[in-house]
Every structure is written in C-alpha cells, then in structure tokens.
Design brief:
Layout lengths: L3 H9 L4 H10 L6 E9 L2 E6 L2 E6 L2 H6 L12 E5 L1 H5 L5 E6 L5 E5 L7 E6 L3 E7 L6 H13 L3 E7 L8 H7 L6 E3 L8 H5 L7 E5 L6 H9 L22 E4 L5 E4 L7 E2 L4 H6 L2 H7 L23 H35 L9
Parallel strand pairs: 3-5, 8-9, 8-11, 9-10, 11-13
Antiparallel strand pairs: 1-2, 1-4, 2-3, 4-5, 6-7, 6-14, 12-13
C-alpha cells in the first residue's frame, strides 16, 4: 500500500486507482516507490514523486537489454524505483525497477533513420497540435501530427495561436476542422481562449504540446501552467527559432500536467507493420473500398472515391507516408543484403575433414 500522505502527491501527478493494479503486478511486495518521469538526460532521468524531484537511472544491464528505446522510460511514464528517499535527499539516484504499462504512447520515426523508433511521451490524455496564425500554418504538417497522436491512442486538439495577428480566425478554424473536430483559437497576448485551453488539464489530465518552432508552445505553457520557459521571437522570414531543447513534464498549480516538446524538423510516422499505417488513415481506407479500380493510388485514376472526399493536405500526408514506407522497405532490404554480403566475405572456411 502507498502511504496516505503520498497518495495525494501522486494524485497531483496523474495517479488514479487504476494505476494501483499495474503497480501491484510490477511490485507485489510493495517495496518500491511509484514516480513519474519528468525529463530525460541521455540515459538518466528527472522524476517527480513524493517529496519532490530527484534523479533516477536505469541499470546498465537493463539499458543494454532494452533492444530499442521503447523499452526504456520516457517522459510521462510511471515507473517504480528503489531508493527514492535517498535520491530526494540528494544521496545518489534512485534505480528504476519497472516501467508500468502505458495507457498511450507517442512515437515517431527517429530523425534521419528508416527503422528506429523514437518515443516522445507516454500516458498522455490530450495532444495539443499548435500552429500559429502567421505563415507557419501547413495543413499537411498538422495532419502528420494528428496521425502520430491517433497512432498513439491520444485525442488530438488543434490550437491556432497568435490570433491577435489576424482579423478573423473563422476561415482557418473551418479549414482545420476538416482534419479534426476540436479546434481552438487563442492569443497569449490578449488572453483569448486560454481558459478553455487550460480546462483540458482538469482532473489531473496530461496534455502534450506539439508544433513547429516558433508557434508559441513555451509562451502558452508559461501562461497556463505558470512555468518560466525561455521564449524567443520568430525570425524575419516567419519561421520559428528553436528554444525548447528537450521534452519535459510540468505540473500546473491550477491543475493538469503539461509536456513541452521541441519543434521537430522531421516528422516521420513509426510503422511497426503494414496494418499500423492504416490506423491513422482509416477514413481513406474506408473510402478506397468504393474506388473503381482495386489498385487505385488516389492520384489521377478515373473513378477514385478518395480525392474529392478527403482534404488535399490529408491526402498529401497519406501519399507521403506511402512513399516513406516504400523507401524504408527498400533501404531495409539493401541494408540486409549488405550485411549478408559482409558476413559472406568474412566467413572463415571450414577446417579440412580429418582422415
């Protein structure tokens, strides 16, 4: 059992009774302390738990046995650790003994790689995809974010920031509602829409902020969660500057938990197998059943049921994902062939048979 005074502290971090069963399965003796990962620092982590914030780490054996990064803690994860009290007191780091099963998991394909997944956040309730009302707005890029969230089991909300820069946000809202039902317009300068956005964190919900550099994620976090994130203005060409350098979980005094993320220059979906890619584009898959030709690519074929029914930006995202999948399969095949070729060249000849 968790001590009553510690339950309140964990509840503020998003703990609820359903986590008790997961904790009991991972730690039947109740010897370890559940805490939540707040930030990652190249193999070590800051975690939040009873008493405050402290360092936690994964043992070298567990790190090397992980296989890929999805088996390691990521921001938003609940983990059970040993020696938490010592870590809070500043006497070394607590040791992660288990990662509790995730309720949702945001993963992308690692930048510059074809086959490596990169975890972004775990146990998120709402994904806030931000775009600003200036030249940053790209429907195709927003749809990529939305697809990542849907793949991870996270409800998407689109937020148009800096609406004080335009006269009427209604046309933008209408355009973005072709991608997702819930769209909000805000201004950190005037305060418009902030109360509604802040309410997304009610009840201890966890929200992740996604979007390009310069759309105002850190400024928004400062306004709704009382943080003191460094912010910088956009450049003269209306493109954003990188300010946030890592993913980090913040607890708002007003309620809710908020994960800030850096702007991502590459936004590739992680596809485990052929079926996973269809989950984010299930609407296109359903429409494709009515196409005249079974092998319709939804480009210029006659009798296509998709082109006229799906927003152009979303269809462009679908085509890009299909191209990435084909290119990734080609690179993986070439990599495998090269590995087999190297293995064949270095293989030692069998010793001669004895008479």
């Amino acid at each position: 059992m968790i001590a009553p005074d510690k339950v309140d502290e964990l509840h503020r971090l998003g703990w609820d009774p359903a986590w008790d069963a997961a904790r009991a399965a991972a730690d039947p003796e109740g010897a370890w302390q559940p805490v939540r990962i707040a930030a990652e620092h190249r193999g070590a982590y800051h975690a939040l738990g009873p008493g405050g914030v402290a360092w936690v780490e994964v043992t070298g054996r567990a790190f090397h046995a992980a296989g890929d990064k999805r088996a390691l803690p990521t921001v938003g994860d609940w983990v059970v650790v040993e020696r938490w009290g010592d870590a809070v007191a500043g006497a070394g780091a607590a040791v992660v003994r288990a990662v509790l099963p995730r309720r949702s998991f945001l993963v992308r394909r690692a930048a510059g790689e074809a086959t490596a997944p990169q975890p972004l956040a775990a146990n998120v309730d709402t994904g806030i995809v931000m775009t600003s009302a200036n030249a940053d707005l790209s429907v195709a890029r927003i749809d990529r974010y939305v697809s990542l969230l849907r793949d991870g089991g996270i409800a998407p909300v689109l937020v148009i920031s800096k609406i004080d820069l335009i006269d009427d946000p209604a046309p933008l809202i209408a355009e973005l509602r072709t991608l997702v039902d819930r769209v909000m317009a805000i201004s950190v300068v005037t305060g418009a829409g902030l109360d509604d956005l802040r309410a997304l964190g009610d009840g201890g919900a966890t929200c992740v902020l996604l979007g390009s550099s310069g759309v105002g994620k850190s400024s928004l976090l400062n306004a709704i969660a009382g943080t003191e994130q460094l912010t910088r203005g956009i450049r003269g060409d209306a493109r954003g500057r990188h300010t946030t350098t890592r993913r980090e979980l913040f607890v708002s005094e007003a309620g809710g938990l908020w994960i800030d993320t850096p702007g991502m220059r590459e936004l590739g979906q992680w596809i485990e197998d052929e079926d996973d890619g269809e989950l984010a584009f299930d609407d296109i898959a359903a429409l494709a059943q009515r196409c005249k030709f079974r092998d319709c690519r939804h480009r210029d074929e006659p009798g296509c049921a998709v082109r006229g029914a799906v927003a152009a930006g979303r269809l462009a995202s679908f085509h890009k994902l299909s191209e990435e999948r084909r290119a990734g399969a080609t690179r993986q095949s070439l990599t495998q062939k090269l590995a087999e070729s190297r293995k064949a060249r270095t293989k030692k000849p069998a010793p001669p048979a004895e008479d």
